[in-house]
C-alpha cells in the first residue's frame, strides 16, 4: 500500500458535525480522519512527528473508491460503487471500525454496469439524501427508512455534481448539461448548455460539466467549458471567467465570491465580475474537492490528485499541508 499511497487521489471530503474532524476519502476505498484541534494546537512532542497525519485511517471498501461523502448529525454518509452507507460518528471516531449502521443499494438497469455514487447532498429540513450517480440519474432517499422516494431523469451520461438551494436542485453532467429541478416534481424545468456559449466553449477539453452551484440569484458552473456565472432567472451568461485551467471540478459560492478549482495550479477566489481576488497554491495537480466550514472558526481544505491536503484558515494562503498516508 505504501507505493500506492504515493499516487493517492482524494476524491471527497467533509467535516464532522462538531467541526473538529475532517474526513477525506480516496481511490483505494479508505477514509482518513484528521483531528483539526490537534493540528491547530499540537503539543510539543507532536511537532516533529505526526501531527498533520490522520488520527485514524479506515479501509471501508477494498474493491471500490470512496466517491462521495456527506455529514448528518449522527452519520457519516459514504458513496462508493452501487452502495451508500451510513456510519455512526462514534464508530468513525474510533480506532477499531465495525459495520455501518445502514446501507442503501443503488443498482443501474444493467446488472453488469457499475454505478458510481459520484455526489451526495443532504437536505436536513426534509430528512432526504440526494445522490447523483453514474447511471445519469439523481435519486432521493428518505433517511428514516432508506426508502427511494424520487428519481430525477434528464441526463444522458453520468452526473458529476449536485447542489441544492431551497426547493431547487442543480445537477452537472458528462453530457454537457446543467439541469435545474423543482424538487416537488420529477422533471427538470430549465437547463443550461455551457458549451453552446461561444465564450465558454473549449472543444479541446470537452463539453462535460464538472461542477455547478446555486445561490439565490446565480448559477456558477464549469468543466470542459470555462467557469461561468449565469443569472438564475434569465439563464443568461453574465461572466465567463478567464483563469488558466484545463477543466473545472469544483465551484461554489461563499461571501459574495466564487471559489473554483480543477486542473490548475491554484484554487481561485473570484468576484462576480471576473476579477481574481485570491490565487491559493495547491498541492494537487487536479483539485477534486474543496470544503469549508465557518464555525467554530474558518477552515478551507483542498484535495485532489495528491496524498497532500491543503489547509487554509484565512482563505488567503495555505497554512498547513495534511498527509493522507
Describe it for me?
The chain has 325 residues and is mostly beta strands. It has three helices and 28 strands. It has helices spanning 2-6, 36-40, 89-92, and strands spanning 10-15, 21-26, 30-35, 56-59, 68-71, 75-79, 83-88, 102-105, 117-123, 128-133, 137-142, 147-153, 159-165, 168-173, 178-182, 188-192, 209-214, 218-223, 228-231, 237-240, 248-254, 257-262, 266-270, 276-281, 287-293, 299-304, 308-312, 320-323.
Sheet-strand content, in percent, reads over 45%
Q: Helicity range of the residues?
A: under 10%
Strand order, largest beta sheet: 1-2-3-4
Radius of gyration: 19 Å
- Taking pLDDT < 50 over at least 5 consecutive residues as the criterion, the unreliable ranges are none
Give a short account of the largest sheet: 4 strands, antiparallel
| Alpha-beta content class | mainly beta
Give the averaged pLDDT, no decimals.
93
The termini sit apart by 9 Å
What does the overall shape look like? globular
Give the count of helical stretches.
Answer: 3
| Structure summary, number of beta strands | 28
Describe the SSE topology.
Layout: H1 2-6, E1 10-15, E2 21-26, E3 30-35, H2 36-40, E4 56-59, E5 68-71, E6 75-79, E7 83-88, H3 89-92, E8 102-105, E9 117-123, E10 128-133, E11 137-142, E12 147-153, E13 159-165, E14 168-173, E15 178-182, E16 188-192, E17 209-214, E18 218-223, E19 228-231, E20 237-240, E21 248-254, E22 257-262, E23 266-270, E24 276-281, E25 287-293, E26 299-304, E27 308-312, E28 320-323
Antiparallel strand pairs: 1-2, 2-3, 3-4, 5-6, 6-7, 7-8, 9-10, 10-11, 11-12, 13-14, 14-15, 15-16, 17-18, 18-19, 19-20, 21-22, 22-23, 23-24, 25-26, 26-27, 27-28
Amino acid at each position: 500500500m505504501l507505493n500506492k499511497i504515493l499516487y493517492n487521489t482524494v476524491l471527497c471530503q467533509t467535516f464532522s458535525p462538531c467541526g473538529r474532524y475532517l474526513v477525506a476519502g480516496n481511490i483505494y476505498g479508505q477514509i482518513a480522519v484528521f483531528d483539526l484541534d490537534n493540528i491547530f494546537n499540537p503539543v510539543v512532542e507532536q511537532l516533529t512527528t505526526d501531527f498533520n497525519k490522520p488520527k485514524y485511517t479506515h479501509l471501508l471498501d477494498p474493491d471500490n473508491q470512496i466517491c462521495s461523502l456527506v455529514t448528518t448529525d449522527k452519520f457519516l454518509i459514504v458513496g462508493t460503487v452501487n452502495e451508500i452507507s451510513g456510519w455512526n460518528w462514534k464508530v468513525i471516531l474510533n480506532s477499531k471500525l465495525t459495520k455501518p449502521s445502514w446501507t442503501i443499494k443503488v443498482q443501474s438497469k444493467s446488472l453488469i454496469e457499475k454505478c458510481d455514487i459520484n455526489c451526495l447532498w443532504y437536505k436536513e429540513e426534509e430528512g432526504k439524501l440526494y445522490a447523483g450517480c453514474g447511471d445519469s440519474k439523481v435519486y432521493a432517499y428518505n433517511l428514516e427508512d432508506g426508502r427511494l422516494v424520487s428519481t430525477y431523469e434528464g441526463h444522458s451520461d453520468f452526473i458529476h455534481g449536485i447542489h441544492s438551494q431551497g426547493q431547487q436542485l442543480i445537477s452537472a453532467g458528462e453530457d454537457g448539461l446543467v439541469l435545474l429541478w423543482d424538487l416537488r416534481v420529477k422533471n427538470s424545468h430549465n437547463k443550461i448548455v455551457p458549451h453552446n456559449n461561444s465564450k465558454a466553449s473549449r472543444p479541446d477539453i470537452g463539453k462535460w460539466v464538472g461542477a455547478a452551484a446555486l445561490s439565490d440569484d446565480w448559477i456558477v458552473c464549469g468543466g470542459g467549458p470555462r467557469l461561468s456565472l449565469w443569472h438564475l432567472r434569465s439563464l443568461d451568461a453574465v461572466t465567463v471567467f478567464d483563469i488558466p485551467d484545463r477543466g473545472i471540478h469544483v465551484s461554489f459560492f461563499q461571501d459574495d465570491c466564487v471559489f473554483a478549482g480543477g486542473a490548475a495550479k491554484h484554487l481561485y477566489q473570484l468576484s462576480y465580475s471576473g476579477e481574481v481576488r485570491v490565487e491559493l497554491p495547491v498541492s494537487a495537480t487536479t483539485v477534486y474537492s474543496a470544503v469549508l466550514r465557518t464555525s467554530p472558526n474558518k477552515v478551507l481544505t483542498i484535495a485532489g490528485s495528491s496524498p497532500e491536503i491543503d489547509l487554509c484558515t484565512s482563505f488567503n494562503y495555505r497554512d498547513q499541508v495534511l498527509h493522507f498516508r
